[in-house]
Design goal:
The complex is a heterodimer of chains A (about 190) and B (about 120). By secondary structure, chain A is α+β, with helices and mostly antiparallel strands. Chain A has helices at about 5-15, 45-50, 70-80, 120-130, 150-155, 165-180, and strands at about 20-30, 35-40, 85-90, 100-105, 135-140, 145-150. Chain A has one domain (about 5-180): Histidine kinase-like ATPase, C-terminal domain (Heat Shock Protein 90). Chain A contains six helices and six strands; from the N terminus they run αββααββαββαα. A six-stranded mixed sheet of chain A has the order 3-4-2-1-5-6. Chain B is an alpha+beta fold and about 120 residues long. Chain B has one domain: Glutaredoxin (3-Layer(aba) Sandwich), CATH 3.40.30.10. In chain B, β3 (about 80-85) and β4 (about 85-90) form a beta hairpin. The chains are: A alpha+beta (about 190), B alpha+beta (about 120). The interface of A and B includes residues 147, 174 and 178 of A.
Amino acid sequence: MKELSLNILDIAQNSIHADATLVQILLDETDESLTLSIVDDGKGMSEEFVSRVTDPFSTTRTTRKVGMGLPLLKLAAEQTGGSLAIESRERTLYPEDHGTKVTAFFYKNHLDFTPLGDVVSTVVSLVQGSPDVDFLFRHTFPDHTVELDTREIREVLGEEVPLSSPDVLVWIRETLTEQYEGTDEEDE
Amino acid sequence: MKSLEELKKIREKMQNKVILREGSAEKRIVVGMATCGIAAGARPVLNTFVEEIAKRNLTGTVEVGQTGCIGMCRFEPIVEVFEGDKRVTYVYVNPDKAKEIVEKHIVGGEPIVEYTIGAAEK
């Protein structure tokens, strides 16, 4: 993947396939590091599955919906000296509190750091593809936060207007772009 | 957030229209968005379609959707256009081709044969 934002798009799709109702995409940036967390309230994975999910060669056809996504993210993190962690609680074992959290830690100044890229397009693409799922996107810089919560948008739009309406998607893109323009550490 | 007022205006505008149920649009554009599609450049293609449809006020008559891997990864980004029982499959799509597909096929009604999988396989 040429941009981390593409990995984010790919991994968030796993959350959607796991029947999540809320997917949180959290980016925490310092001068040296970037921490990415993707947190969902989906059906979760078994301990056994979590233990082999980042190994591309253990993926079989029945587990194909996870496929290459996590191995690629792990590689992107580890090649900067960082790491990837996955925590998951299966719905069958934790009916009240289930879901998966994927956390990737990157050293930003490492030569092999993949630039974040167009994360705004990633958010727009996710909402477009899954208008009934809620997304919380938050990108925290030392002195600024960029945030979008589709639950707030849904509240304004009511039930009749889908979040995938082109006008709404354009609004989401403009809102996020405007917030990024307010940051000092502008990403392309 | 930017302006919730603008969102309210979108809501009012949309409420004046009859919102079409999924599948009732005249044409449907589907972009492959699995790992293979994303890595090959599907995201800007998808967003180009979404923007072009909004810009041309085709919301309601044209639907833009996403799908997973359809098993032809080497042709990604793949875009399928459905109209009635007809399907046209475009391969190696990029944002410029996407714009052209909207202009000539979606609006003009003429599929662009040279961008289709049939042409690519020759």
